[in-house]
Design brief:
Blueprint: H1 4-11, H2 25-36, E1 47-52, H3 55-64, E2 74-81, H4 82-87, H5 96-114, E3 118-122, H6 127-134, E4 140-149, H7 167-170
Antiparallel strand pairs: 1-2, 2-4, 3-4
The structure holds flavin mononucleotide.
């Protein structure tokens, strides 16, 4: 039996080469809405999304983001608004923030995939430079860019040297045997 969610989870790939074809405002809003529906620790809803479409600003971001190989029509920056966290007496370095960013990112990636669009996450960038380029409020921490666009048909990045792994390679049940280093 086919299952659209499981199919999307399995078929979505990170895309590092995109075309100039625009993303419509309706598509963009559906993807932002998918990010909004991601759960957050304590339901604090401290994720913030900054949409960058201006060519000049994108050009500045490329200069400070060595991990961004894409030249996408849209870049979404997922930030944590520490102002919200501080109002909840949560410390700035709480692990919930990067986890919550990851959840929103994956929701967006799967939503984009379901709409026939492509995404690529990027965390390799200078946070201080991005703060300055986007003039982010002091309490915003930029965590992850989501490049959003249409996948190029041919891409030098499509070659996959990795060995396939399965969930079996990653999963353990109940308790580790005593010779595994545990108690
Ligand atoms: C937290 C995180 C940070 C990442 N940062 C980058 C990055 O800076 N640049 C990049 O090209 N890919 C980045 N990726 C993408 C991973 O390299 C990618 O998920 C991996 O190659 C698997 O690709 P697949 O999802 O298509 O199987 C990142 C992924 C995650 C989860």
């Amino acid at each position: 039996m086919s299952n659209a969610v499981l199919d999307a989870i399995r078929k979505r790939r990170v895309v590092r080469e995109m075309t100039d074809e625009p993303v419509t405002q309706a598509q963009l809003e559906q993807i932002l809405d998918a990010g909004r529906w991601a759960p957050t620790g304590g339901n604090m809803r401290q994720n913030r999304f900054v949409v960058v479409q201006d060519e000049k600003i994108k050009g500045l971001i490329y200069q400070v983001a060595p991990g961004m190989f894409q030249r996408p029509p849209v870049i979404i920056l997922i930030c944590t608004d520490l102002g919200v966290a501080r109002a909840h007496q949560i410390s700035d370095d709480s692990l919930t923030f990067p986890m919550d960013v990851g959840k929103a990112a994956q929701n967006m990636a799967l939503a984009a995939h379901s709409l026939g669009l492509a995404t690529g996450p990027v965390t390799s960038f200078s946070q201080s430079a991005v703060n300055r380029i986007l003039n982010l409020p002091e309490a915003f921490v930029p965590h992850m860019f989501i490049c959003l666009g249409h996948a190029a048909e041919v891409s030098q990045f499509n070659v996959r040297p990795w060995q396939r792994i399965t969930w079996r390679d990653l999963t353990f049940y109940d308790r580790f045997p005593s010779d595994s280093g545990g108690e």
